[in-house]
Design a protein that fits this description.
The protein is mainly alpha-helical. The protein folds into 2 domains: 10-116, Arc Repressor Mutant, subunit A; 121-149. The chain contains 6 helices and 3 strands, in the order ααβααββαα. The protein has helices spanning 9-34, 38-50, 55-61, 66-78, 100-115, 125-148; strands spanning 53-54, 82-86, 94-98. α1 crosses α2 (38-50) and α3 (55-61) crosses α4 (66-78). The two termini are 25 Å apart.
Length: 149
C-alpha cells in the first residue's frame, strides 16, 4: 500500500517499520537473555538515555500509571538493576538510577546495538546518529500528539 508524499517516502516508512520491528524483537530477546521483563528493559533504556529520572517521570515515559510505576521500580530494585535515592532539593521526591548491575545490562545491550552499525564507515556515523535522533524526536512528537487527540 502506498500513500501520497515525496518520492522515497514509502520506502523510508517501510524501513522505519522494519527498524521498529527489529527493535521490538531485540527488546524481547534482551529481556530473555537478562532474565528481566520487557518493561524492565525499557525502563533501563530510558534511564540509560535520559539519566536519573523521577519515579513518576519514568512511569510517564513508559505510559504507566503511578501505581504501576511504583511496582516497576520495586521490581527493578529487587532485581538489583536500579535504585531509588532522595531528590537533592525536594525531599518529597525520589529519583531512580541504574546500579552497577543495571549499567552492566546496558553495556551488554550496547555491544549488541553497536554491532548493527558495522556496515557504516566512521565518517557516516555522525550523520546517521543525527538522522536517528531526528527520527526519534519526530516520532515521539507524533505519538504524543496522537495520544492527546
Amino acid at each position: 500500500m502506498t500513500g501520497a508524499g515525496p518520492p522515497g517516502l514509502d520506502d523510508a516508512v517501510r524501513g522505519l517499520r522494519a527498524v521498529i520491528l527489529a527493535g521490538e524483537n531485540y527488546r524481547q530477546v534482551i529481556a530473555q537473555v537478562t532474565g528481566l521483563g520487557v518493561t524492565e528493559t525499557q525502563a533501563l533504556s530510558y534511564l540509560a538515555v535520559h539519566g536519573d529520572r523521577g519515579q513518576n517521570a519514568l512511569g510517564c515515559d513508559l505510559g504507566l500509571t503511578s501505581s504501576a510505576s511504583t511496582a516497576l521500580v520495586d521490581r527493578l530494585e529487587r532485581q538489583g538493576v536500579a535504585e531509588r535515592y532522595p531528590h537533592p532539593s525536594d525531599r518529597r521526591r525520589v529519583l531512580v538510577r541504574l546500579t552497577d548491575q543495571g549499567e552492566a545490562v546496558i553495556a551488554r545491550s550496547r555491544s549488541w546495538l553497536a554491532g548493527s552499525f558495522q556496515s557504516f564507515s566512521a565518517e557516516e556515523l555522525p550523520q546517521l546518529a543525527a538522522a536517528l535522533q531526528r527520527i526519534a524526536a519526530d516520532l515521539r512528537r507524533s505519538s504524543e500528539a496522537s495520544s492527546r487527540s
